[in-house]
Specification:
- The model has no long low-confidence stretch (mean pLDDT about 95).
- The protein is of the alpha/beta class.
- It contains 11 helices and 12 strands.
- A 7-stranded parallel β-sheet has the order 8-7-6-9-10-11-12, sandwiched between helices. A 5-stranded parallel β-sheet has the order 2-1-3-4-5.
Length: about 325
C-alpha cells in the first residue's frame, strides 16, 4: 500500500486526513514534528511527504536524504514555499508543490476584521477602557464605503479581498502585473506609487520572493497617507519591520495590522506563556494600541484546513502515480 508521512500535523487536521486516507485507500501517518535534519530519517520507508511549517529548510543534505529514501516530491500544504531550498530540491529530483488557494475567503475575512477594528479605533478604545477612560477624543471613524482600499497582489486572495470591500461600497484599486478581466467591475489597476498615494487601506497579498522582500520599506511607508492603515496577511518579510515601527512611532501612517512578521518561526502557533519572546519588534508592535497583531491565523478556518489537507494529499497521489500536479511551483 502507498504510504505518506505528514509532518507538523495539528489535532484539528486529523479528521480530514483520516477521511482522505480511507477514501483513497492510502496509508497516511502523521507526526507533530517539523521536517528538519533531526527528523528527516522519519520519512524512510514512506513513498510521499507533506509538510507545513515556518522553519526554513536550507540544508542541501536534507534533500539528498529525501532522494536517498526514494522520495520524488516535497509537498507543502501551505501557500508560501520560500522555506524550501529550490536549487537543492531540483538537484535531487524533487517536485515541489504548494496549495495556492485553499480558501481565499479565509484570509480576506480576517483582513476585513482587522480593517474594521483599525478604522473604528477599537484597539485604542480598549486601551483607554482598561484604564477606565471612556472619552471619545480621537476615536471618530471614517465609514468604510468612503475609503479607498489598495491591494498589492490581486491574485486569488487579493481578488477575494477586493470583492468584499467593493461589496461594502469602497473604491478598490490594485497593483498587479496580471490584469484580470473578471475584476473589471471590481477594481482599477494602478501603478504602485499611485496606490500608495491614494489608498486609505494598503493590504498586501503577494508571494515572498526576491522582488517582494521588503517591498513595503521606509520609502513606501513614507509615500502613504498619514491617515492610512497597512495590512500584512501575506508573508512577514514583505514588510520591513523596523521601518514599519518607525512609521508608526512618527505617525507617518495611522496604524497597521499584521498576521505575519519577520522572525515569527518558533513563536506563532506556540504557547510561550511565562517565557521571554525573542522578537523585540513583535513586542513593540503588540504594545501599540493602533496595531492589530494575530499569530498567522488568516488561513485558519474549517474550510481552509480541510482544503489544505485534501489538495496536498491529492498532489502527492498524482505525482506518485506519474502525473503532473497543477500546483508545481518550480
Amino acid at each position: 500500500m502507498t504510504s505518506i508521512l505528514m509532518y507538523s500535523v495539528r489535532p484539528d487536521e486529523q479528521e480530514a486526513i483520516q477521511a482522505w486516507a480511507q477514501a483513497n485507500d492510502i496509508q497516511v501517518d502523521t507526526t507533530d514534528h517539523d521536517l528538519g535534519m533531526n527528523t528527516v530519517d522519519m520519512i524512510k520507508g514512506y513513498d510521499g511527504i507533506v509538510i507545513q511549517q515556518h522553519a526554513a529548510l536550507p540544508e542541501p543534505e536534507l534533500y539528498q536524504r529525501l532522494k536517498e529514501y526514494g522520495l520524488k516530491q516535497l509537498t507543502l500544504r501551505i501557500t508560501g514555499y520560500d522555506i524550501v531550498n529550490m536549487q537543492a530540491a531540483r538537484e535531487n529530483g524533487l517536485v515541489v508543490t504548494n496549495v495556492p488557494a485553499y480558501s481565499p475567503r479565509s484570509v480576506s475575512e480576517l483582513v476585513l476584521a482587522q480593517v474594521m477594528r483599525l478604522v473604528r479605533h477599537l484597539g485604542e478604545a480598549s486601551a483607554r477602557e482598561a484604564k477606565d477612560d471612556y472619552t471619545w477624543d480621537g476615536l471618530q471613524a471614517h465609514e468604510i464605503h468612503n475609503l479607498t482600499v489598495g491591494i498589492i497582489g490581486a491574485g486569488k486572495i487579493g481578488s477575494a479581498v477586493a470583492r468584499i470591500f467593493r461589496a461594502l461600497g469602497s473604491t478598490v484599486i490594485a497593483n498587479d502585473p496580471v490584469h484580470r478581466p473578471e475584476l473589471a467591475d471590481t477594481l482599477d489597476y494602478v501603478d504602485l506609487p499611485t496606490l500608495l498615494k491614494r489608498a486609505d487601506i494598503v493590504t498586501v497579498h503577494t508571494p515572498l520572493d526576491e522582488t517582494t522582500h521588503h517591498l513595503i520599506n521606509a520609502q513606501a511607508l513614507e509615500a502613504m497617507k498619514p491617515s492610512a492603515f497597512l495590512i500584512n496577511a501575506a508573508r512577514g518579510p514583505i514588510v520591513d519591520t523596523p521601518a514599519l515601527i518607525e512609521a508608526l512611532q512618527t505617525k507617518s501612517i495611522a496604524g497597521a495590522a499584521i498576521d505575519t512578521i519577520e522572525g515569527e518561526a518558533g513563536i506563532f502557533e506556540k504557547d510561550l506563556s511565562g517565557t521571554k519572546v525573542d522578537n523585540q519588534a513583535l513586542e513593540t508592535l503588540k504594545a501599540m494600541p493602533n496595531v492589530e497583531v494575530s499569530p498567522h491565523i488568516g488561513f485558519y478556518t474549517d474550510a481552509a484546513v480541510t482544503a489544505m489537507v485534501n489538495i496536498s494529499l491529492y498532489d502527492v497521489k498524482t505525482i506518485l502515480e506519474g502525473g503532473t500536479s497543477e500546483h508545481q511551483v518550480d
